[in-house]
Known about the structure:
2 copies of one chain form a homodimer. By secondary structure, chain A is an all-alpha fold. Chain A is 75% helix and 0% strand. Chain A has a domain at 53-184: Tetracycline Repressor, domain 2, CATH 1.10.357.10. At the A-B interface, helix 8, helix 9 and helix 10 of A face helix 8, helix 9 and helix 10 of B.
Amino acid sequence: MGTTTRHRILEEAARLFTERGYEATSVQDLAEALGLSKAALYHHFRSKEEVLYEISRQALEGLLEEAKKALAVSDPREALLRFMEGHARFFEENRPFFVTMLQGLQSLSPEKQAPILALRDQYEEALRTLLRRGMEAGVFRQLDVALTGRAILSMLNWMIRWFRPGGPLRAEEVARWYYHLLLRGLEDGDT
Amino acid sequence: MGTTTRHRILEEAARLFTERGYEATSVQDLAEALGLSKAALYHHFRSKEEVLYEISRQALEGLLEEAKKALAVSDPREALLRFMEGHARFFEENRPFFVTMLQGLQSLSPEKQAPILALRDQYEEALRTLLRRGMEAGVFRQLDVALTGRAILSMLNWMIRWFRPGGPLRAEEVARWYYHLLLRGLEDGDT
């Protein structure tokens, strides 16, 4: 039961932080939305910041799990496609956690921000590893992996600004489409 | 002088909205930061929303001017490069206006949002026109122009989240790098 309430708090908090913003959501708002007393809430989390920290940590751990599946694929093209699809699927299925993680970073104190940044760096490093492997295999061109990784994550992350569930495309399909655009590029091969 | 004060209000408001957020900035905060009375401020703008509207309008008009320069270039590759560089340069040189425009859209009432959305659509349509021209000329592959345009703007717009002035690269250089990645793609042409 402790675990269940804990999870319910995180889910409701992620929803409120996504809709109203972290700063604009008070512990009182969260307690009311959950039908809990502030005391009950403080029994599970010491502060609003701890709630934000835990949401961010779980989001990045979830993304890292997806990245590990992609890293286990030996074909570099297939591995990159899996990474991009996994990122988009995780976003669509865990939107409030994902958005809270992306938007909440600057609201964390330096001590709580450091482990979150370390997880994020680990995630970005997984993407760079995929890209490096593809370059070493001669499948991808020799490119700056940091900028290439940034370009890929920028395309995917900007989906928080325009993607609406229930639209014509699933997030994963958008990711697949972006993958094909990135792989072959814009230029017509015949010219 | 009216024009000067008006512009000074917009500049200070864009700075505050970017730093603290639109909702968290009051007319009182803005008046204090400017050393003006609220009455003096209301002499120039009827409401905080009107200030947000005017910042957003000016940002999009500025971007549209850049887009028109790109549309005037006949070579499709060169035109796309100009568009992307223009977008990034405008962002770097007018960061508070650019960020306020991107982040403030949902804070506008429907009546004020409509003309801003129309300008944004016009801007996105300019990019699609560039892409269509390149496809018709056989320079670019036949691709979904809406998704391609979205991919390009996503990469560029995500710079608001990571790009820091004074870093190793100018925003325009990042845009040029992204252009080259997009044009040729990731895949090694020899495989």
